[in-house]
Amino acid sequence: MTPTLTALLCLGTRPKPTIWAEPGSVMPWGTSVTIWCQGGLEAQEYRLYKDGESRVWDRQEPLESRDKAKFSITHMTDVHAGRYHCNYFSPTGWSEPSDPLELVLVTGLLDKPRLSAQPSPVVTSGGNVTLQCASQMRFHRFVLMREGERQPSWTLGSQAAPHGGTQALFPVGPMTPSLRWTFRCYGYYSNTPQIWSDPSDPLELLVSGVSGKPSLLTQQDTVVTYGQSLTLQCRSDVSYNRFALSKEGAPDPPRQLGRQTQAGLSGADFPLGPVRPSHGGRYMCYGGHTLSSEWSAPSEPLDILLAGQLPYTPSLSVQPGPTVAPGENVTLLCQSQSSMDTFLLSKEGAADPPLRLRSQYRAGQHQAEFSMSPVTSAHGGTYRCYGSASTSPYLLSQPSDPLELLVSGPSMVPSPPTTGPGSADGPHWYLYILLTAAVAFVLLLSLLVLLLVLHQRRVKGRKPGAADPEPKDRGLHDSSSPAPAAQEESLYASMQDIQPEEGVELDHQQNTQDDPQGTTYAQVSQSRSRLRWGLATSPSPMSEGLLDSEDRQAEEDRQTDCQVGPFSEFLGFPFLNHKPPLSSPLQVTASDTPQDVTYAQLNCLTLRQETSVSPPSQSGKPPAEPSVYAALAIQ
After folding, report:
1. For the chain: N or C, fewer Cβ within 10 A?
2. How far is CA 200 from CA 92, 107, 160, in A?
3. pTM
4. H-state helical runs in 51-152
């Protein structure tokens, strides 16, 4: 029979006991601790064993309940540190041993390590985080324990830390808001695995949720100086009863405070005390409830900038000058001969954070141009500029001399928008363009309508049956008519005064010397006269047809205003709009081109038109040629 089988027969089916320590398995020097061993109801004796010891460490009778026993250590020392297990004896024999219990002594002689979260102790729900336990004591191993658990959560071997000493990196997650995540870490050496260093400061991880985010503000400027008192205020309209303040990238755990109600808002004030360089950075705050481990969404970040930490002083100037009118373009120029990565422009008393611009090297200077376009009265105030390095963006140089910008005087005419479609002045210029285009469109449409009406009148005025119709309202005859040369016609307009005492005299002459093309001149000298239009042609059948057609149109033409508006010039008839006084000479000139028509417009505002041919004389003789006439010849 093998030894293993013999042991199993001796043990029988008795359950394995359970072992634990109270108040915990990690105990400081000199404190008392109780080790419990719990077995079956038939147990008659309990025994405690320590690894490395050949004898039984302790024996105890079961308590009245008979299912457990306790082993007391009144004064914890390094002798008690070690690994323990227990078993019990029953009428059927000895049980198998329990799982081991690590009883650890914290001597207080080894410095505590430092526990931090990377990248931040604030983690979103479901996210992961890395906890770093580091020490300059060069421990061989590190232990991470979660608060509320009896046994160590994780144990890892150490590795060299970037800044000396050793460290261990513990991945933790995924995070859930239903649990509290508070940790401590320890370090120890391999030759004494049950003697640990002092515990690190507790680190509570904040699991942020989606509930309403609070607001983070300060009563002071965000640019502070060394030694200045600084308090950050976290406020919320949600009834949170605890608040936490965290600094981005800081290894320290978030600071937590209870609720302080002010003006219907819940909040907490976080005094940072006299400002030191370590206070520069980006801060956020959170709100939470005592009965829940979940925190709110983070507030908007607040940057705290510490001035006077770099031994440089930039200069600040303004163009075009410190006094400007509203609407002007202003540029604030921050310069330094020393190397600067970033320039910041702050306005005294402003709630907004300082403006940041990357430095540019020009003409032996590091500089940045802060443009304001266009300025308003709100831009007036006192400005200062600072420089910073990329390695420490929250530590600033000495401030420049203050520059006061005064915005006064009448508003300047706003220039076209330079800040994009969202600028306040931009839409006005677009409106001006639209209005101008609309007016131009209306005028063009009116012109087209008028041209259409004139064209329709011309079509109505054409003589029916004529091979080449003539416009009636202008007394023209197209010289390009295809009629044979034998039937070439001349159009005469006879002007006869119906009042004998008021003569109308028209001098007709042909100046062949000055005008080789045969220019016809007509002179009319009478201020108050009525004109009679007549048509004299050769006695050809075509001429008689034209006369009959003219008779039919006479009555209609009498009602038509003979004066054409300013659009006649647009149509190509410059003389139609010319109204010379009747007391002044009126000259009608025939064009040099044989195809052109010479015409004249007679003002008909007070004239009556007649289209009948002069009647024959009573003597039966053919009528004499009118003594007063104007001839319009078609070349």
Report:
1. N
2. 48, 14, 19
3. 0.52
4. none
